[in-house]
Structure formats: C-alpha cells, structure tokens
Amino acid sequence: MTxxxxxxxxxxxxxxxxxxxxxAWYKGEPPNHVRLTLGRTSQNPELYEVVGDEDMFEYNLxxxxxxxxxxxxxxxTDLDLPGNSETAYVFVIDGVPICSVxxxxxxxxxxxxxxxxxxxxxxxxxxxxxxxxNGEEVSRHQGKHYTWETQLSSSDHNATFDCQLQHYTxxxxxxxxxxxxxxxxxxxxxxxDVSVVYASQNPMREEADFIAVCEAxxxxxxxKTDEYWIGPDxxxxxxxxxxxxxxxxxxTSGEYTCFMSNVFYNGVKGNGTATVxxxxxxxxxxxxxxxxxxxxxxxxxxxxxxxxxxGNPDPHRLEMLFEGMSSINVMVEY
Length: 334
Hints:
By secondary structure, the protein is mainly β. The protein has four domains: 2-93, Immunoglobulin-like, CATH 2.60.40; 98-185, Immunoglobulin-like (Sandwich), CATH 2.60.40; 191-281, Immunoglobulin-like (Sandwich); 286-330, no CATH class. Helix content is 0%, strand content 51%. It has strands at residues 2-5, 10-12, 23-27, 34-38, 41-42, 48-51, 60-63, 72-78, 85-93, 98-102, 106-108, 112-118, 128-133, 136-142, 145-151, 160-166, 184-185, 187-199, 204-205, 210-220, 226-230, 236-238, 242-245, 254-263, 269-278, 280-281, 286-291, 303-308, 318-322, 326-330. A six-stranded mixed β-sheet has the order 1-9-8-3-4-5, with no helix packed on it. Residues 330-334 have low confidence and may be disordered.
C-alpha cells in the first residue's frame, strides 16, 4: 500500500526474471478494471508513464499529478501468463489533519489534557498519526483518528504540539506537509516559584536584627495578587516581600514562610512559598544546689549539684571553680 499527496507523483514498481513478459498495468477492481499501459506504451501519458531499465525487465508505473481519482487498486500482470501478477493500493492524501486540544490551550500545571488528531482518509490506508512536542515525537498511533492524553507541567509552557501522518512510502521531508494547519501552543499556568534571595546571618545571637527578602523566580501569570510573610505561630507579620525582625529574642526562633499568589484563568489562586529557619542562640542559665543544705562541719561530705537549665545550642561542658582558681570538670547529661 502506498500513500501519495494530492498533486504529487508516485511510483509503483514491477519487474521480473526469466523469460520476457508482456507487461500491462491495470487500474481498478477486476473485472471492471481499466488497462493503463501495454508494454512501455501508456494509454494516457499525461497521467501514467512506464519507467525503469528495460534491459533489467523493469516496468514501473509512474503516476503523475495524483488526484482523488488516483486512489485505487493497481495491478501489474503478464498477459502471456494469466495469474502472474502483483497488486498495490494507492491512497491519495487530500487535506491535512484536524487538530484540537481539550479542555483548551490554556490549562493549569498538572491538568490532564487530550490532544485529538483526525485525518479524512480511507480507513484502509496505511500510516501512523504522530504527535510531536517542539518537533520531537512524543506519541504514535496507527490509524486515522488518535487522541493522546497526557499531563502538562510548568516546563511545557509555550510548548508547541503538532500531529503528522507518517509512512515509509512518503519521503520524510513530506511528513511536515501532512500536519496540523496550525501548531497548538500551550499556555500552562502555574503558581509562583518563590525563593528567599537574601537572609541575615543565621544562627544569630539575641538582640540582633534579622532581615530576609523573597521573590518569585518564575510565575504564570506573572502578576502577583498577594505577597506576605507568616511567622511560626501562623500569623501574618509582614505584607511585603521583605521580613524585618528587630532585637530578636529566643522566642523569635522558628520557621518563617513567604507566600506569593497569582490568579489562574479560571479564578483559582496559585500559591507559592519559600521558608527560612531562624535560630536565635543564647547563653544557658545555671542552677546550683548543695546537699545537705544545712550547717556542716569540717570533714562532712557535701554534694554540689550544677545544672544547665537551658541554652541554645545545648552546653557541651560545665566547669566548677573553687575560690576562682582551681576547676572541676563536670560531665553534662541531658
């Protein structure tokens, strides 16, 4: 089976070995077929021509300026030996695929979409319908009607999609001419991709100031409707892309979140976030206790208990000083 584009030419090959044959080409289903050639003579040279190396016994039929009427069964036969014949079907492509996408060319990241491709061609015709994204094949199906379902991400924004009819009987460079009348360009909308682009040195000590700035690296649509920061307690603490905390204390520690929003085509908000962890460090409080806590005399045994009650980071070493001179190392237990 052979495909040919309307107005183009194609060739059907016929050759033999052994004794010379009386070759003839016929068009149509027998017994109502019509003879096109006898030997190397064509009944209609403007449409049909016998080509090939006569010494190699080649009687190839060239069909010129193919029309819809050229779609038919063709038979090469030996008139001296009935039954010694070969047939081929020719299908003429008169038109391009009809292409569409559902629910439409504007979607939201993660949505499922269906790309539909349909070409008006005999159901028995060969060929594959091939979907291409930015010129690269992404899906293939044998037939004349194909719906390819997929999910799109932000990386697919502005990608172009095209459907082609492909078959080995057509030159590769012809495939692009049997494609969607217009490529489908997708507008994939997605929430802002938020990043903290600046933050003060962290960890930090109490009474220092903390500054952080966030921004949207990318978003579609680009226009933002909300920009704010939320603190560890879930409350809004800044209505901008900047976060300024003065004279921080140990209670300031925690996770802070920058929120940015845009609005998709259907009115739904897209929310993007970025977080920064603030770690405020401070000295430990020390508690000491003497046991027994009563008047003691020389020679009595006394236990002195030393404990770090808090601190950030946790203390890793405790030391006891006696009259500010000698020291006793103490193991820290948590």
